[in-house]
Amino acid sequence: MRTARLAVLIGIGGVLLALMAGAVLLATRSHPKAAPGPQIVTVVIPEGKTAAQIAQIARSDGLTGNYLDAVNAAVASGSRSASQARLRPSDYGAPAHTPSLEGFLFPATYELYAGAPVSRFVSEQLEAFRQNFGGAEAARAKTLGVTSYQLLTIASMIEREAKLPGDRALVSAVIYNRLRLHMPLGIDATIRYALHDYSGPLTEAQLKMSSPYNTRTHEGLPPTPISNPGLASIEAAARPANVKYLYYVAGADGCGELRFSTTYSQFEGDAAAYRAAVSRNGGREPTCKRGRR
After folding, report:
1. What is the Cα–Cα distance from 70 to 228, expressed in whole angstroms?
2. Among 130, 248, 255, 138, which residue's Cα sits nearest to residue 188?
3. pLDDT band for position 167 (50/70/90)?
4. CA dihedral in degrees (67, 70, 72, 78; nearest 10)?
5. pLDDT tens-digit series, residues 264-273
6. How open is the CA angle 60-48-231, to the nearest 5 degrees?
7. How many CA atoms lie within 13 A of 12 on its CB side?
């Protein structure tokens, strides 16, 4: 009798377990696990990179398509009804039919879906530029006697020349002072841009190369910006320091500061000190020893 009852209880328990297992299975089927969302890629563009250098970053971060082709396609022309995803350099005072968007590809940190097309990335860069370069910068350009495009070009040179924040407004002053005096700017970063060479010393032949980007031999600004500047360099181009400096050279201590001067003789002295420091360091840039014991 007890055996029979036990068998019944076991049987009922088995049924209950089966029902519970079925309920769990049904619940699992009714509420499947959500599929993982699309992966987000963070694309970091440092200040002062060129379009060609940004193309390498976009490719290494897995964006799809040819970045430089997307940049070229984003140059607007014709009527002002062009898409917001495109930009017309002439609206900023660039010569008509300027084909380059160098300078407008705003450096920042962008978040995009993994595998996003580079055209989407370019659109976000241009929108970021519009948000950071507008009426205030245009007004400052007019006050300084330049176009917005020229101010952007000056900012691009400041970005490549000044390694320390405190030097930006001083480099800006040197550029404006030389432009007013019709002196060649003599900025080697513009030559490097033409050569796509950002390392090693420039040769005498390169320094004398026939190119509108050679600001040693051509008066005035280069034809386009030579990098894509950030806010700090744009601000420096809009508000140069109130100084009379006409020259600068890298400091002999190798710590990044520039040495500014108003006379050529003073500049030559600073330049000689830098050359001597390079010679002592085996032909390489001086090594900063500040802070070392």
Report:
1. 16
2. 248
3. very high
4. -160
5. 999 999 999 9
6. 120
7. 5
Structure tokens at 227: 């990098």
Domain residue limits, the chain: 40-132, 145-245
Question: What pLDDT is stored for residue 15 in this prediction?
Answer: 38
Average pLDDT over residues 181-187: 97
How many CB atoms are closer than 10 A to CB 7?
Answer: 10
Q: Which backbone phi and psi does 29 adopt, to 5 degrees?
A: -70, -30
- Counting every residue written for the chain, the total comes to 293
Model confidence band, residue 261 (pLDDT cutoffs 50, 70, 90) = very high
Rg of the chain in Å (alpha carbons): 30
List the structure tokens of 11.
Answer: 């049987």
pTM (predicted TM-score)? 0.84
Question: pLDDT digit string (tens) for 215-229?
Answer: 999 999 999 999 999
Question: Which residues neighbour 152 within 8 Å (Cβ) at sequence distance 6 or greater?
Answer: 92, 103, 104, 133, 225, 229, 234, 237
CA distances for 16 relative to 6, 24, 123, 195, angstroms:
15, 12, 61, 80
Indicate whether 31 pLDDT > 80.
Answer: no
CA 100, CA 84: separation in Å to the nearest integer?
Answer: 17
Long-range residue pairs from 65-73, CB within 8 A, at least 24 positions apart, any chain: 65/117, 65/118, 65/119, 66/118, 67/118, 67/121, 67/122, 70/117, 70/118, 70/119, 70/121, 70/122, 71/101, 71/105, 71/122, 72/99, 72/101, 73/119
